[in-house]
Structure formats: C-alpha cells, structure tokens
Amino acid sequence: MPDTVTSLLDEIAAIGIDSARGGYTRPVYSTPELDLRSWFLAHAQARGLDVETDRNGIIWAWSGGVGGGAVVTGSHLDSVPGGGAYDGPLGVASALVAFDLLAQRRVAGRRAIAVFPEEEGSRFGIACLGSRLLTGAIDPDRARTLTDADGTTFADAGRGAGIDPAHIGPDPDALARIGTFIELHVEQGRGLVDLGRPVAVASSILGHGRWRISFTGTGNHAGTTLMTDRADPMVAAARLVVEVQRLARTVRDARATVGRIVPIPGGTNVIASRVDLWLDVRHHDDTVTHLLVHEIGQAARAAALAEGCTATLTEESFSKTVDFDPLLRDELSAALGDAPVLPTGAGHDAGILKNHVSTAMLFVRNPTGVSHSPAETVENADAEAGAIALAAGLQALLAA
Ligand code: GLV
Ligand code: MN
Ligand code: MN
Ligand code: MN
User: Fold this and answer.
1) Which of 12, 34, 94, 169 is deepest in the core (most CB within 10 A)?
2) CB contact at 8 A, 240 and 313
3) What is the DSSP secondary structure assignment for residue 322, as one 8-state letter?
4) Domains along the chain with CATH numbers
5) pLDDT tens per residue, range 234-265
C-alpha cells in the first residue's frame, strides 16, 4: 500500500503526546523531535532520496541530484507546547506523498524536501531559527547563546543532535540551491471553511515580532510583608496584561498576546523579585506594529511605577509583513483550479525564505479554525487533496 498523508501522520501520532497539557509537545532537538527527524530520514531513504543534514540542522532530501535551481518544499517537525498534530507535520507528510506522485508520473527535475528546526521558537524563543540562520537573518553568535527554560543553550542542544555549533550561520551555497520554495501548511483560521474549499494559496503573512518585558521589584515573604509595603512585579505584570488587550483593541487589525509569564523565583509563598513576560504583536503595517509596541512599553513603565517597580522592554525578534510573489501565487492558484487566495497571521519559514527566493504557500482546510492547540484538525480527504495540490504545484514549477 502506498503511503498516504493520513497513514504517515498516523505513524507519528504517538510521538510527543503531552498528557498534561493535551496535544503534542515536540521542542526542537528534544527526544520527540529527534524521533520525528529519524522517522523522516527513514522515509526519505526508503524512497531513494539523497539525504543530508546541513550545518544549521536543516534536513534536505533530494531527488534528481543535489544542486542549484531546485524546486523545494517542506515544513517543520517541532511544535509549540500542547500544539496540534498538523502544524508542521502536515507539510512534511504531504511533501513525501507529493514526491511519490511525481515519481509515479515520472516527472523529471531537481527537487528537494527541507525540514527546518525550531520553526516555532518555543524552545529557544526565536521562531524560524533554522531558516534565519540559513539566510543570515540572525547572528550565529546570538543563536549559539540562546537558552531554553532549563538553561540549555542552542549550541549544546544542537551538539546533542549532531550539529557542530561552531559552524552554524549563513549558508549562501545551500540557499542558492533553492530555485523556488513552496510550503504546505494547515490553515490556522477559518478562511477555507467559510469558502467551502479544501486548499488555498497564501497571499501574505502579517508582520510580527516578540518582545520581552521584565518587571523588577522586591522579593519578599508572602506572610510577613504588609500589603502596603510591597513592590510586587507580578501585580505590575497583571496590570500590563490588561493594558495590552485594551491598547491592541484600539488598533484595527492588530493582534497582541501575552502567552508566557515567568515569575522569579516562582513560589506560592514568595513575592517575586522579577517577572518576565513575553509579548507577541502582529499587524500588516510594520509601522503600526512598532507604534503599538511603543505604547505598550509606556504602559509597562506606568504599571511598574504604580507598583514601585521598574520595567525594561527588549525586542527579541521581528519579521516584516511578507507579500508572496504575485506571479507565482496566481500561477499556483490557476494550476489548482482557481484555488482561493488567503492571508495568514502565522509566521512560517516560507516567510523568511521569501526575502531571498521565489516563495509560495498552500493552506489546507482546518474545520475548527483553531491552531497552536490540540483542537487543530484536518479531514483525511482534505489532507490527501492537499498533497495532490502540492504535487500539481511542484509539477507546474518543474515544467516551467
Ligand atoms: C508560529 O507558528 C507563529 O506564527 O508564531
Ligand atoms: Mn507551522
Ligand atoms: Mn505554529
Ligand atoms: Mn508558524
């Protein structure tokens, strides 16, 4: 029986289950993510693809010889904490099935599947770290010292996965091999549900970034410190969370989220001495994003002052709004029977690569419209339709 997208996803359905949070937790270079990478390598080798892992931890699986001008597809195998089954793996499984379809049709031409590490930034804080390193969008010195919640550096985690951290960084030769890149991804909204269609082509990615806000106060005893004698950074952080929502709601189309707060030291009977809070802000106009973050920074200082604390704001990453290549977008839409064209608010490696190579994305319908949650879903028939669409897109590009 040939593999289907559904059978491939079934093979990995037990890897990285998070029984505490629900869904999947597959941080980059953790045991579950390494198991998924091995699973992919086995499938690529079984198909006779030429497999390599480059110096940035990106896995490449080639057909038609390794070299320039290739048509490349792929996605990622890491997840957010408690994520769904499809964000990332759907694109990788669909790539394998699309390559099978091209082989059956005896389609010639150089092509590759790429699997990118740390797309989510959920372990080391910077999303799309593999594609950023490849393209030079992040300084390798900074990447090496990024640290996870347990104090492990990206350098050490990479070393554990067989990647020499001394050699990570911009790789113009590897980048030059990509002629065109298409990433297939589960839709992370309800656009296709509303249109009653299984597959769309992407128009754009909202500009987005991550900022860390640290509130510093005075650590003390929860029982012996009078309520009037406190400089509690947790209260300052709480004030800010409400302000983030209020400010974002004043800006049409803006999204601002506080999804992670870390109190230090973090004890039930301890007034924290510091609270770190991570802010995710997105808008299609990058100037608006920066203005909103500026206002949030002022609100953070006001919240700190009200509690006798101090606040600092640091930009950790920023990705400009991406408009995908309109010619490629329209060519793909036409090749897929006039597929609808939809924007997304989610970041992707395709968005980083777009600054360097001709790039497109396909989205597959998600009946719940929910993502970064166990509720993310894809119907089996749509998963197979996605792989067929990807094969058609790759074939059109290989013929071009
Ligand atoms: C990644 O999925 C992101 O959009 O943050
Ligand atoms: Mn993804
Ligand atoms: Mn994601
Ligand atoms: Mn993403």
Assistant:
1) 94
2) no
3) E
4) 5-206+321-399 (3.40.630.10), 208-319 (3.30.70.360)
5) 999 999 999 999 999 999 999 999 999 999 99
